[in-house]
């Protein structure tokens, strides 16, 4: 097992990894930007190294400084968290080359799976159901138009290197197609440095279902069942739950097996998420594999009792998976609310000083945050300041308890998305069960000032 | 105004009076009450002002630092994370010593990161007042390495 | 402005006047009311302003109240939890009214708890300045029921 | 279901009950003493009534004022929590007589089971294994001596009305017997108003194992498996866990059945705990039934996923148990640390102002407390200010995580028992498994200044 791990992140996920390390008896090194010197993730760590100024590109994403920090502190491994360097194949590769374990998949896995178009082609070849679409990237407008007509409008143009809704265009009519492709290519080129795009059929009211996967270096792969992440605002996840109210046991088993097959087909290692799009009829299609631990991993931990971060670390250290598929049972229901520092109506960031931070407590409540009893929300980083994760014996109890937890949560000094979560949880459609990824955009449109 | 609120305010007034306060703020479950009254002038004439002034206000903040020398010193900080070396190689002399005069652009030390030697240069003319880190020590971003007195160099 | 708000403000002004406050802020359920008045103009001529300015110490605590009426009022509070009744039965007169002079030991009201009628007595002679709770209202332990001016009773 | 419940308690258990009510959509009335007017349990409630001055006997135990508060606020039910009026048969009886539901057993159950000697006799008659001892209370010194000789020394003298170690005397030699009985009688008379005592064989290194029971008004009784409360200081529980490391599945089933039989034999209702003493060989003996929800109920909630307080409320409202025995599965391992405001070496109370209170977070951590980001520990009440409850997939993970939680816990301004818990958790004997109820007294003696 590793003796010392550098946590190449900040905020709640840095604390989350720190906690896993402490429980495993592993020493920790925090990195931080200069404005984060007093942050909780720094205070929790055994050692800490300042790696640059406030701006993430110069500190948390600064590969030479992060690796130097790993070298001067003599760590065995680096946990990248999510965001920053977590899906940077080059970073993983340099780690491998200097003999520091990157807690995640290999650089080849990241490279293959971060190219959405290639991943799609690979999965299709292996018999994994993918969304109807183009074979690989598209160039020629005429070929494009033919594919689109065959798929039937609307279609969606997606960037191969994309993520988070960038480089995406929905096309409703043939005459809009060429322009949509060009603008998506331009946006993708600007955002990711690679302008390649591909075509898929567009579903208007899909659900977003993803399976948590773990694979060890000994050929074992298990899934920890699904998360339903259909509550999104402009392709950004807002609230997640497990299990999905849209799945029954038979569909769950089927999708779980497909997810495991997809992962096995690339000989994947460590934690990953297989994302599916599911239509109203229950048909599901592979979308992509996320090659990192995800923000919403705690809902899976709540319903399976597994510590996914510890499992990641154990596997990276060469241990075997500590569960077989049959040991992984779903119990109860879990919901996660991402609490962002933002105006709940206009979604503009609300950085500043938190004058009082008092999380809820009692049964079934878990809070992951890097806030102390007070705190600072810097404008340089992600606006998520806390995750409220709630367990209940069933979905109804989880919803009632989440509402109770939101009511108890005190965050003074800044605006947060707590009122938005209340609106979601109070909504009869959400309470009833499955909603689509467009539920929240519609709800927000109704309330927009 | 509900009776209970009225009662609360009156209770607060009572406390205000009893303890000779001039202001009282009370907040509870979404109800906030603030009451204020002028300090009572009656006793003012009896205060011997001259003595109060002579005695010296205990609230006086200390002024600017008496010994102000370091205020104009420049701090050379590490622009990267790595290992600090005062000399180009183990068997050569350090680039600079305390007391040395340096020119802008002159190499002061090396910070090694990922097997690369990064030379750190002086940003202005001056005298090396203090070397803050020992050779071969790891340093982080922004860590002070040297104190330079720019006046001494001019 | 709703009538109820108007009434609330007027109530607050009454409190401000009655207790010689200079400022009163009240917030409840999103409604915030703040009222302010110049410090007691009536007494101004008697205050030697020049001396007040000279003295200047911000640390000085105010002396005993200038207008001391409320300071010596006694508050009769409920010793138990129950329902407050001003009269022994629905068809009889209240035990006391505002302005009445009462003797120590005289019954002021009843607090009913668990079907038992508990008589609350005056703890000293005095004048009922204010009845703070309406009859048949629930009261909690320690809740003020009457304001009594003990000087008026002597 | 009830519309409004009065919570006749303060501190963390008042919040715990409040949370259950909120999740069930029931309005709450808090009662409080005058010094508690600003307490969190008051702020959380929908309504609140001051019931007396600081001293508990004049406020929280003041039956007329508490019942008046219930009447003027028009509640349907009262939840007594633990302590204060929770095991007061007279209080339960008055509630029954005025038509307010007492959330707990009937007054007859409380009366029968709070007389330890009678309860013992009752259980013996029904074939429940009880500790070898006297049949009922003892008076005549000669009869006593004969019984004691037959039992074999050491024996223990216990007050019928006893609890928490008061009115107890261990007798090692015959010649000490008479004096021990007299002093125990005197202490019991003073503490409980009833001087009756009885004799039992004394075990030197027993374990304290208790079963959580729930019984509805329709004849159903289930148990939620055991808690091990062997970590005690002078008969006061300090740390509890579930499951017990001393039980295997077969013994667990056997004891669970005995606990259910004991409860059924008195036609019990609502939540209760059957306490057993277990000797080194695994033989177990009925000790007593606690007729209330207990401080340590959360460890059971963590490993079964049940909300015991909600279940109490549902049953009191006449609903059936929402679980059958087969639905109640043990998953993982849970530990509770009672965090007291006390000097960790001398165990003297440490009341005062908490200048900063920041509980731990992350996976598997639950904190039940009535402290805000700051708080006041009053000298009038119990010194327990928080419970840290930790879930792990197994005992090792639970221990590692509890240590991590204790390390994260920030309570500034007063002294707490956190260092004591660290000593327990760091101890190899505790880490290895079963220890006896004398483990902690020995550990403390070693460290005493």
Q: Please, could you describe this protein's structure?
A:
The model of chain A has no long low-confidence stretch (mean pLDDT 95). Chain A contains 15 helices and 20 strands. Chain A has 449 residues and is α+β, with helices and mostly antiparallel strands. In chain A, the strands form five sheets. Chain A has an eight-stranded antiparallel sheet with strand order 13-12-9-10-11-14-19-17, sandwiched between helices. In chain A, strands 3-2-1-4-5 form a five-stranded parallel sheet. In chain A, strands 7-6-8 form a three-stranded antiparallel sheet. Chain A starts with a strand and ends with a helix. The longest helix of chain A has 17 residues, at 249-265. In chain A, helix 12 packs antiparallel against helix 13 (418-426). Chain B has 154 residues and is of the alpha+beta class. Chain B is built from three helices and ten strands, in the order αββαββββββββα. A four-stranded antiparallel sheet of chain B has the order 3-10-8-5. Chain B is elongated and about 85 Å long. Residues 40-69 of chain B have low confidence and may be disordered.
Reading the helices and strands of chain B in chain order gives: HEEHEEEEEEEEH
Biggest chain pair interface: B-C, 39 and 50 residues
Could you give the count of β-strands of chain A? 20
Provide a count of the helices of chain B: 3
Principal-axes geometry of chain A comes out as globular
How large is the radius of gyration of chain B?
31 Å
Distance between the termini of chain A: 54 Å
Mean pLDDT of chain A: 95
The total of beta strands of chain B comes to 10
| Main sheet: strand order of chain A | 13-12-9-10-11-14-19-17
Oligomer: heterotetramer
Helix content of chain B: 10-25%
Range of strand content of chain A? 25-35%
Largest sheet of chain A: 8 strands, antiparallel
- Average pLDDT of chain B: 75
Annotation field: number of helices of chain A: 15
Distance between the termini of chain B: 74 Å
Low-confidence stretches of chain A: none
């Amino acid at each position: 097992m590793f003796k010392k791990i550098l946590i190449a992140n900040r905020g709640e996920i840095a604390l989350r990894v720190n906690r896993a390390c402490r429980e495993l008896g592993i020493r920790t090194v925090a990195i931080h930007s200069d404005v984060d010197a007093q942050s909780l993730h720094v205070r929790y760590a055994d050692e800490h190294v300042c790696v640059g100024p406030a701006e993430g590109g110069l500190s948390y994403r600064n590969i030479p400084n992060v690796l130097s920090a790993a070298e001067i502190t003599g760590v065995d491994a680096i946990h990248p968290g999510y965001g920053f360097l977590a899906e940077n194949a080059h970073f993983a590769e340099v780690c491998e080359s200097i003999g520091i374990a990157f807690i995640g998949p290999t650089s080849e896995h990241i490279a293959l799976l971060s190219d959405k178009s290639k991943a799609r082609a690979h999965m299709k070849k292996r018999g994994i159901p993918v969304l109807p679409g183009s074979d690989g990237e598209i160039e020629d407008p005429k070929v494009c138009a033919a594919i689109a007509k065959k798929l039937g409008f609307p279609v969606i143009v997606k960037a191969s290197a994309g993520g988070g809704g960038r480089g995406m265009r929905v096309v409703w009519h043939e005459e809009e197609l060429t322009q949509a492709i060009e603008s998506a290519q331009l946006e993708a080129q600007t955002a990711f440095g690679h302008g390649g795009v591909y075509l898929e059929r567009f579903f208007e009211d899909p659900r977003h279902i993803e399976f948590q996967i773990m694979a060890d270096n000994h050929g074992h792969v298990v899934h920890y069942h699904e998360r339903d992440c259909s509550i999104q605002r402009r392709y950004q996840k807002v609230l997640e739950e497990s299990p999905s109210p849209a799945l029954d046991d038979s569909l769950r088993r089927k999708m779980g097996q497909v997810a495991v097959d997809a992962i096995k087909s690339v000989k994947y290692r460590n934690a990953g998420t297989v994302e599916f799009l599911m239509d109203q009829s229950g048909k599901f299609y592979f979308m992509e594999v996320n090659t990192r631990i995800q923000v919403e991993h705690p809902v899976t931990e709540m319903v399976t009792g597994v510590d996914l971060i510890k499992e990641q670390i154990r596997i990276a250290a060469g241990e075997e998976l500590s569960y077989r598929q049959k040991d992984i049972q779903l119990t109860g229901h879990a919901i996660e609310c991402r609490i962002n520092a933002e105006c709940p109506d206009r979604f503009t960031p609300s950085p500043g000083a938190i004058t009082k931070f008092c999380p809820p407590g009692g049964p079934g409540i878990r809070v992951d945050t890097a806030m102390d009893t007070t705190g600072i929300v810097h404008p340089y980083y992600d606006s998520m300041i806390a995750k409220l994760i709630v367990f209940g014996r069933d979905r109804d109890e989880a919803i009632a308890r989440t509402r109770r937890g939101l009511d108890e949560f005190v965050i003074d000094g800044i605006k947060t998305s707590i009122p938005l979560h209340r609106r979601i949880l109070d909504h009869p459609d959400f309470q009833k069960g499955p909603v689509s990824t467009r539920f929240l955009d519609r709800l927000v449109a109704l309330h927009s000032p | 105004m509900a009776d209970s609120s009225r009662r609360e305010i009156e209770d607060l007034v009572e406390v205000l009076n009893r303890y000779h306060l001039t202001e009282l703020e009370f907040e509870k479950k979404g109800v906030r009450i603030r009451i204020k009254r002028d300090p009572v002038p009656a006793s003012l004439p009896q205060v011997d002002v001259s003595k109060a002034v002579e005695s010296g206000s205990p609230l006086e903040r200390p002024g600017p630092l008496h010994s102000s020398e370091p205020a104009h010193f420049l701090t050379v900080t590490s622009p990267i994370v790595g290992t600090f070396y005062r000399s180009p190689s183990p068997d050569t002399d350090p680039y600079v010593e305390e007391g040395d005069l340096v020119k802008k652009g002159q190499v002061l030390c090396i910070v090694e990161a990922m097997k690369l030697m990064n030379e750190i240069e002086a940003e202005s003319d001056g005298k090396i007042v203090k070397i803050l880190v020992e050779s071969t020590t790891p340093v982080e971003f922004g860590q002070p390495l040297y104190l330079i007195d720019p006046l001494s160099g001019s």
